[in-house]
Amino acid sequence: MRLRCVGRYVNDPRGIAYSVGETFDVDPALLAFLMADAPGCFEPAGPESKAINAPPADKAIKAPDKAK
Question: How far apart are CA 49 and CA 44, in angstroms?
Fold first, then answer.
């Protein structure tokens, strides 16, 4: 699973530190620890936006197809 850090997180005893905006992979054990320790600092990271999700570059209104 991928997580995104939304608040600075540091855990010195475990040697873990994440800065805001950082996206990283976690295993189930680390996920359970982070959600128990600081649930407000992390959120699931969705897929990166792709070009197919972007609006078309040409936003001009096209003429309708001619009637047959």
Answer: 15
As a whole number of angstroms, the distance between CA 43 and CA 6 comes to 7
6 closest CA partner among 34, 43, 58: 43
Q: Is 4 left (phi over 0), alpha (psi -120 to 50) or beta?
A: beta
SS3 of 61, please? coil
Q: Could you report the per-residue pLDDT of 42-57, keeping only the tens digit for each? A: 999 876 655 556 666 6
5-31 per-position pLDDT tens digit:
999 999 999 999 999 999 999 999 999
Do 2 and 10 touch, CB atoms closer than 8 A? no
